[in-house]
Write a structure and sequence with these properties.
heterodimer; A: 149 residues; mainly alpha; 5 helices; 62% helix; 0% strand; B: mainly alpha; 2 strands; 77% helix; 2% strand
Chain lengths: 149, 513
């Protein structure tokens, strides 16, 4: 693609990534979450693919599939955290530690440090979806034929 | 104590974790991957057996995900809202079938799959399919059932079509995917209707609320249609021969077990979910006549097949007909004739495990044939018995068991079905017996064509792990044929009674009181 497109992409891609991370991070407070944020991040990968061509990204295929696996493993592992009580038990909620702030009753603007294992699971899903959709897009690009620029 | 309490969820979560971690281990080293696969497979089987023993000795097992304790079924507000696993006799029985088939498939795959032909991929999909099947069988929540149904659909279609270097698997996978998706959507629509009506997804809670209104009947129709599509009953059977025939042998037997998991979903819907509202024998007659139609059409189609894989596939479809016949007869006479209705149910349910073992054995033997000479075309095969001695023996055993020859397991379950369906209508029995005779003819021809006669070419004998897998299934066939009373008394009867009169117990286990 032309130098204009490449320059704009260099500016926009970090913004898309930041927005995706925001959607994932606030998944337990606002609409959105791991899947939606992951899809936003994957759209950044799609943009890179269009602008720079699949050849430049082909080397990252194995990394993406590894990240996808790790996201899925992290999700199941987080569910196993609660096996002392029951599978999927939210052991971090209200414990005072990471994401463990007790939620005060009544209306509030939303506190990021709440939700227990939920935000962590959102991150796991986000990683899985971003890497999974990213590798789908990448594979479509790689199999798409020889007209990559 | 603790591991026993958590056994139902571990049986689902561990193969799921196994599927996700397998590619990572494969990147490190192949032997690490194989070790992991064996460990996960053995642990899953141990958990399924633990669940079954607990259920058969001490009643229904309930496991509530995310609650303070596994038995905390009712959330604050007096309403079962969490995802829940409810394992009664029928679920435990189905879990055992899935574990048996999964174990055989895993052991067989070790020497059957080739490294350069996507062995890691196939094993990953296998564990995903296994987790989905066990999830369908153990869950006590309608939406969760749909999720696991879709997990099995995706994993099964990928297993049929992952060999992208051949053209036919892709076509079979596409056909299967289309029908699975339509079936899954029908099920989802029905669940949406029920959710809109009663605001709940828990099977036990829904069952206590369902009154049999017009909307409920529509939901029942959609569930029946969707699940019968996944099962491969006759009007929607056309995906089954393609999928079974084109899938590699270790995946084909998982597809058979997956079909039975959908069949289990059908029983759960008919007997537990709608068990209180459904009193007309019309649905029973529908299931019975679809069963008879399925077995007749599938057997007639099997007669004309020349490909060994497709021939066995039509045999597999016909066996679904026997199960529908047995349980359909039970459903028809549920309110009126409890004495022999239960016999029909036992026959239909016993036939599920028999079918898993016999069809599984035949598919595995066909896989050996394909690997040995590179083709399964009966017109080109012949004399394989000279080289494949064990395999031909196993195929012969499987064929006899499938046709229902007396000392084997197929006879035990088919006899229960004949005996009870005769009392409903002799025509049903006549068609069922005709189907068995035709099956015997079909498989006698297949056996003669593939294994007997002069040696036409050198064949590569089966590898040890493949022989062990077939040996396990053959041992199950012989054991269930020689002492059917033991299996009927300790496994089949609790499963049949869980459906037949167990609805109140199922509801009480979840809702209390």
């Amino acid at each position: 693609m032309s130098v204009v497109v490449r320059t704009i992409a260099r500016i926009i891609v970090p913004m898309i990534l930041a927005f995706g991370a925001y959607v994932i991070m606030h998944g337990h407070l606002t609409p959105g979450g791991g899947f939606q944020g992951g899809a936003v991040i994957a759209s950044a990968i799609a943009l890179l693919l269009v602008v720079f061509g699949s050849g430049r990204l082909a080397g990252h295929k194995n990394l993406l599939s590894l990240l996808e696996d790790l996201g899925a493993i992290a999700f199941v592992a987080l569910a196993f955290l609660g096996i002392g009580c029951t599978f999927f038990r939210n052991v971090l909620a209200g414990s005072g530690g990471l994401f463990g702030m007790p939620v005060p009753p009544g209306p509030n603007p939303g506190f990021l440090n709440t939700g227990g294992t939920l935000p962590l699971m959102n991150w796991a899903v986000g990683l899985k979806v971003a890497a999974g959709l990213g590798s789908v897009v990448l594979l479509l690009g790689l199999f798409g034929g020889g007209d990559d620029r | 104590m603790t591991i026993g309490v958590h056994a139902p969820i571990l049986a689902i979560a561990v193969p799921l974790l196994g599927a996700f971690a397998l590619p990572v281990f494969a990147k490190v080293h192949r032997s690490l991957r194989d070790l992991w696969a064996i460990a996960v497979g053995a642990f899953t089987c141990a958990m399924v057996i633990t669940v079954a023993v607990q259920t058969f000795t001490s009643g229904i097992q309930v496991y509530t995900l995310g609650a303070a304790a596994p038995t905390d079924t009712i959330a604050s507000g007096g309403f079962p809202i969490r995802i829940m696993l409810v394992v009664d006799g029928m679920s435990a029985f189905m879990g055992l079938i899935s574990a048996l088939v999964g174990l055989a498939s895993l052991v067989y795959a070790f020497h059957f799959l080739k490294e350069e032909q996507g062995k890691t991929l196939a094993m990953t999909l296998f564990f995903l399919l296994w987790a989905g099947m066990l999830g369908m069988e153990y869950t006590g929540d309608m939406f969760n059932f749909f999720v696991f149904l879709e997990v099995t659909s995706i994993a099964a279609c990928s297993l049929v079509g992952y060999r992208t270097w051949e053209s036919r698997p892709a076509e079979a996978a596409f056909k299967t995917m289309a029908l699975y998706t339509v079936g899954g959507l029908l099920v989802l629509l029905a669940i949406g209707i029920l959710y809109g009506e009663y605001g709940a997804l828990n099977i036990a809670y829904l069952s206590s609320k369902i009154t049999g209104s017009q909307l409920d009947k529509i939901a029942l129709g959609l569930l029946l249609g969707g699940l019968l599509m996944k099962v491969g009953a006759v009007p929607a059977h056309m995906w089954a021969p393609d999928a079974y025939g084109e899938a590699p042998a270790q995946a084909a037997i998982m597809l058979v077990a997956n079909t039975q998991a959908s069949l289990y979903g059908l029983w759960r819907v008919l007997f537990t979910l709608f068990g209180g509202a459904l009193s007309a024998p019309a649905v029973g007659w529908l299931v019975t006549s679809l069963g008879v139609l399925t077995l007749l059409v599938a057997v007639l189609m099997a007669v004309v097949q020349t490909d060994l894989g497709r021939l066995i596939a039509y045999g597999a479809v016909s066996q679904i007909g026997y199960m529908l016949l047995g349980v359909g007869v039970g459903l028809t006479v549920l309110p009126s004739r409890p004495d022999w209705g239960l016999v029909a149910m036992k026959g239909g349910i016993f036939h599920m495990v028999n079918d898993a073992a016999t069809i599984g054995l035949l598919f595995l033997a066909a896989g050996v044939v394909k690997r040995a000479v590179g083709t399964r075309d009966l017109r080109a095969l012949g004399g394989l018995g000279h080289d494949l001695k064990w395999t031909s023996g196993f195929f012969f055993l499987g064929a006899l068991a499938l046709a229902g020859i007396p000392p084997l397991n197929g006879f035990a379950s088919k006899f229960l079905i004949y005996e009870s369906s005769f009392r409903l209508s002799p025509i049903l029995t006549a068609i069922a017996v005709l189907g068995s005779i035709l099956l015997l003819a079909v498989f006698a021809r297949a056996f003669q064509g593939a294994f007997l006669g002069p040696r036409l070419r050198e064949a590569k004998p089966a590898s040890p792990s493949m022989l062990v897998a077939m040996g396990v299934l053959a041992a199950v066939i012989l054991a269930m044929g020689l002492v059917p009373g033991f299996f009927v008394e300790h496994m089949v009867t609790p499963a049949a009674e869980a459906l037949w009169r167990g609805r109140d117990l199922y509801l009480a286990a979840v809702l209390g009181g």
